[in-house]
Amino acid sequence: MSSPNRITSGFNVSTPKSTETSLDTIVALAKRRGFIFQGSEIYGGLAGTWDYGHYGLILKRNIMRLWWKMFVEDRDDMFGVDAAILMNQKVWQASGHVATFVDPMVEDLLTHQRYRADHLLKEKGFSVDGLNLLGMTKLIREHNVKSPDGNALSDAQTFNMMFKTVVGPKYTSLDRKTSGGLSGRIEFLNGKNRELAFDVNDEFSELGGFMIYDTQSISYLRPETAQGIFTNFKNIVDTMHPELPFGIAQQGKAFRNEIRPRDFIFRAREFEQMEIEYFVHPDEWQSSFEKWIELTHKWCEAIGLPKSSVHELEVSDSDRAHYSKRTVDFEFDFPIGREELSGLAYRTSFDLDNIARESKQRIEYVPRDGGKPFIPHVIEPSFGVERAFMAVLTSAYHEEKVGEDDTRVVLKFKPELAPVKLAVSPLLRNKPELVSKAREVYAAMKKKYGNVMYDDNGNIGKRYRRQDEIGTPLCLVIDFETLTDEAVTVRHRDTMEQTRVKISDLTTEIDKLLEAF
Ligand code: GAP
Questions:
Q1: What's the pTM value of the predicted model, to 2 decimals?
Q2: How many angstroms separate the alpha carbon of residue 257 from the centre of ligand 1?
Q3: Is the shortest distance between the CB of 386 and ligand 1 below 6 Å?
Q4: Quick one: which of 340, 298, 306 has its CA closest to 70?
């Protein structure tokens, strides 16, 4: 579980690969079939950012929708919020993020490339479990650990991962002058503008410029959605009058200025989270925690992850975030090895206590039976959408031998996650009578199932392969016989079996087939 105070916590380091599918295979498929592209690719990319293409965004939304249905809609004790990404800087001061949301970093003293200290050490075969900055520096010095380019390394230091920004026009920048100095202008509305200029000595000659801003205007792109929940606790209690235990859920973007984003979407600088803060009576945290362990496994099953690939890791005292009294990480056998998929933490009343103290407001739950008001404790199941996406894609990916020397790639998604539920095709695209019938069937299917694709590109064999690669559960083909027997061929993605189904029975049969996947 990565979190504030993470110098000794949440270091996700690749362990040996335990699944057959390589990351390169997944990345290549994701690009080839329009799931995910490198962010800003046309300009050479921007590290740690990814763009979702048509099928990718539908898959992502399907994952998020299923999560919302399972954890919010299907329950009576859950409420939603959608908080602003930019929040008052006090949120991040009170939560501890300004002071301690850091990762350990080292610098190549020659190239000035920067690396995650723990990742580098782990890759060189050292164990970093529970090590703080001093411990890492000691390892580097004692074993003369070098950078990947073979150069000496700096001591390990902390790097705060929050993206800082300035809200409103309360800043100015000083740009480099050709003469080597820095100059800029601060414009005050009373007309007393100030020109600023600095000479810079050789030591700073590489600097591009400076930014001057009003410190009161600083904000951050949120590094977790959780704080948007905690800061709305009082609003939800005052407007929804929930009875304890209850949860508040939020899905949305989070941003972390990762020192080295890597492993495709696994470690990105911009990603999405699905988080729940589940408020309980302090005496009941243990039973609630156990229930959330069970529910997390159910979620993994619902998105099609094999039980054998999901593992619980009881996070040790030294590796836990400062707010957590117990953390269980759920790890998955990714192509890069066994890594954190999601986390479950017992955050006690840490966050609500901080907010009450800093905001000077009463943040309490008043029992309906007239009992004494108290600050509830919190169990936090926290899921990353990108990691769920990557786990779903990895689990769904299959290469199967078909025939003597042919192989097909098939994504065996659960039907509720598949970006395309059904594909409808005329056997031949240049036969108007087939096209007209196929369009008729397509329109009826689209009305009922939504994400249905009309596919007449290439021959039927190629269409099946393409649909297999995007994970379409069923393909319907309209052929010449359809014109006389009012039946279509239904081809099953996983078994590749083909059956004839009367158009009048189609939806009943499709429902049955989808249910049985
Ligand atoms: N509110 C608690 C929290 O944010 P976390 O362990 O730091 O805990 C929760 O993050 C989840 O967010 C992780 O389990 C992971 O799925 C996802 N996550 C964290 N950092 C990420 C990154 N750089 N790229 C993609 N997903 C990330």
A1: 0.91
A2: 12
A3: yes
A4: 298
